[in-house]
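FAQ
Q: What does a multi-component entry look like?
A: The components come first, one per line:
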Amino acid sequence: MRLLTLARDLRRRKARERQGLFVTEGVRAVEELLRAAIAGRVTLRGALVAPELGETSRGAALHAALGGNGLPVLEVSGRDFLSAADTDAPQGVLVLAEVPTHPLETLAAPLAAARPGAEVRLLVLDGVQDPGNAGTILRAAAGLGAAAVAALPGTVDLWSAKVVRSAMGALFHLPTLTVTPDALAAFLGEAGVPLWGAAGEGEPVAGAAAEAPPALAVALGNEGHGLGAAVRAGCTRLVSVPSTPLVESFNVAVAASILLYELRPAALRGPRDG
Amino acid sequence: MRLLTLARDLRRRKARERQGLFVTEGVRAVEELLRAAIAGRVTLRGALVAPELGETSRGAALHAALGGNGLPVLEVSGRDFLSAADTDAPQGVLVLAEVPTHPLETLAAPLAAARPGAEVRLLVLDGVQDPGNAGTILRAAAGLGAAAVAALPGTVDLWSAKVVRSAMGALFHLPTLTVTPDALAAFLGEAGVPLWGAAGEGEPVAGAAAEAPPALAVALGNEGHGLGAAVRAGCTRLVSVPSTPLVESFNVAVAASILLYELRPAALRGPRDG
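Then the predicted structure of the entire assembly, as tokens:
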């Protein structure tokens, strides 16, 4: 399939799943993607470039770097480019890359690699639907030291253009995978990793964090309905962020960030931290 | 001006500022707005209702409640309604209300009302531009016990439809005001309230939080450029959320939430919290 047609097609989830490809657009995001490709974490398939990219020296350097890596680079008109882009201001560069596929056992790697007693945090997304929320969570998870992210059915496609954009490169560095609740529960059970869930009625996370085991999975639920019944039933502990009565709940990305912050690995704690 | 024309007009910032009005749409948000109006925190001006609202009993009850409060309620066609609405699925209800105007002295009220030693947190937005980020920050600030929010020039209009929507009602309960950096600095100086700023190179907030004074203002900067020079110069301390090298920075709403969480008032801390 021609690169332009393919890029247009990849705006649909079904096409992304069938082709195993996703699209990244914009100078900064593509620079980040290129770094991940050089590190061997992502495989690139091709690039679309519009004349606009050459208007800045940073853009021209990126154009050269893409071609210099032996990647097929198709130069198209600004109009054709826009027909494939997801945003109104895509800066004239768009790259197609393979969705990194991680089996469930990927979750075992950080557990096996950790020194005895070192904290390993796995994040579980159980029906997070808004792509901006999902991307913000992925970015926060990468920054707060989560080792991997498992997405359960009902979660937004983590490789949609808007999630990729909101994640600001975090998706290229953090292993993500999709899994059923049953398979996840079986894996966590066998690995001896407890699952904590975020829920409004849970105990304050600050108190619970003091008793957190070295290896821990943390589940965040849907924006409207919270955790699904299957995941909730598998949680050994429910935790929450205490709130004033002025709001009903926190945004799920805010809740996820505060929970991951409270449960962050020692490397992200200063000498004076509690 | 007719209610329908006025509602359409209010989608522009200039019109909102000239009229001193803003628009809230959707069943849940309008319910929240109605509660704030009954509590005397917001003054309503009128409502637009489309036939769609009557399709659910919750919508019909809201329709009745709006009319029952003596508010002018204009019933319009679905098409006219959509011409004034900001979202694609506005649920057939939209209310015009007065922007609550708070003078700078508003910031003094929670300081004066606090018991000796009780924590008062003021949030300063210095150029936060994305309406989704601003709304998420307002919602988090209300939940995490901030007493008021001051927006400096360059910050998105907090009364735009998208901020109101993302704030999920928090805007109706949390005093907000706009102010210049000079006026803010003069006020904080006179009140003896130090200003801390969020900056990537700042010290970890967890350590700083242990030394936080009872009354404290915290400034968050622009998504791309961080704090402006004027605000940065006025900060007595710069704080940050420690991050792995996988991300360049946190989303500003994530950073704001974690900072406000670390600095939260005692009422939101459990007996076991650090």
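Q: Is there any commentary attached?
A: Sometimes. For this entry: The beta strands of chain A are 21-25, 44-49, 73-75, 93-98, 120-126, 148-151, 176-178, 195-204, 215-221, 237-240.
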